[in-house]
Structures are given as structure tokens and as C-alpha cells.
Design goal:
Order of helices and strands: HHHHH
Helix content: over 70%
Structural class: mainly alpha
Family: Belongs to the ELO family.
Number of helices: 5
GO cellular component, one term: endoplasmic reticulum membrane
Subcellular location: Membrane
Distance between the termini: 52 Å
GO molecular function: fatty acid elongase activity
Strand content: under 5%
Pfam family, one: ELO
Length: 149
């Protein structure tokens, strides 16, 4: 019994030691501009994981329970405005990306610019906007999956 408890303790210790090592490594290799600029979801790897976990919980558990005895909401106008905003934001990201590729990119081999130059910060903020758009895209699934069933 003592051997079993020792192996369980060693196993749990190893798992948590590995997880903490991975967590520290993620912070070591992360872009330092995340903290400097105070960006919403990119300052810690935990924030996107919490968003995705909350999303999955809402889609598969809480949302269906909330809507079990209710009629679907009429969200036609809201969804049209939401989709229009998504199209415009994604169009903006596409235009900025094509402009960056066409005018500012060396096609041979170019390293990522980790400096704090205005151009590097501009591109970094566009990456952040793209990431936020993808997180906001989750709302589309929530409205289509739970509220309109």
C-alpha cells in the first residue's frame, strides 16, 4: 500500500512539475510586447483557455438548459448587424495583411520584428485584433446553436 501511495504521489508530482514547466516555458517564449501593450487576451495563455472552456460549457451544458422551456429568440436584426461587423473587421484585416505583404515584406526570408517600432506595434495590434475577432466568432455559434434551437 505504501508503495502504491508513493507511486501515486510521484506521478502527481511529476505531472504538476511538467505542467508548471510548460507554463513557465510559455511565458519565456512569449512576446514581451503582450505585457507592455496591455492587450486583453494575449497577456496570459490562461485567458484564451478560460474563454474556450466557458464557451464549451455554455454550448453543451448551460445553454441547452436555459433554453429548454423557452421559445427561440428573434435575433435576425442582431445577427445581421453582427455579421456585417464581422465582414467589415475581417475585410480590414485582409486589406492590412495584403498591404503588408505587398509593400513591406521581403520574400526571401524575414524574421519576426520583435522591436517596438511603430510598424511592428501596428502589425502586432492587427494580430491582436484578428485574435479577438476569432474569439468573438464564438458568439455566432452560441446564437445559432443554443438560442435559435
Amino acid at each position: 500500500m505504501a508503495l502504491l501511495l508513493k507511486k501515486l504521489y510521484t506521478g502527481y508530482y511529476w505531472i504538476f512539475d511538467e505542467l508548471s514547466g510548460i507554463y513557465i516555458y510559455i511565458f519565456l517564449v512569449s512576446d514581451p510586447r503582450n505585457e507592455e501593450l496591455g492587450l486583453i487576451l494575449m497577456s496570459s495563455p490562461i485567458k484564451p483557455v478560460l474563454v474556450i472552456t466557458s464557451y464549451m460549457y455554455f454550448i453543451y451544458n448551460l445553454g441547452p438548459k436555459l433554453m429548454a422551456n423557452r421559445k427561440p429568440f428573434n435575433l435576425k436584426v442582431v445577427l445581421i448587424l453582427y455579421n456585417l461587423a464581422q465582414v467589415l473587421l475581417n475585410l480590414h484585416i485582409a486589406i492590412v495583411s495584403f498591404e503588408e505583404l505587398w509593400y513591406h515584406t521581403n520574400w526571401d526570408c524575414e524574421l519576426i520584428d520583435y522591436s517596438s517600432s511603430p510598424r511592428a506595434i501596428y502589425i502586432f495590434r492587427k494580430y491582436h485584433l484578428f485574435f479577438l475577432i476569432k474569439m468573438i466568432d464564438l458568439l455566432d455559434t452560441v446564437s445559432n446553436y443554443t438560442l435559435l434551437d
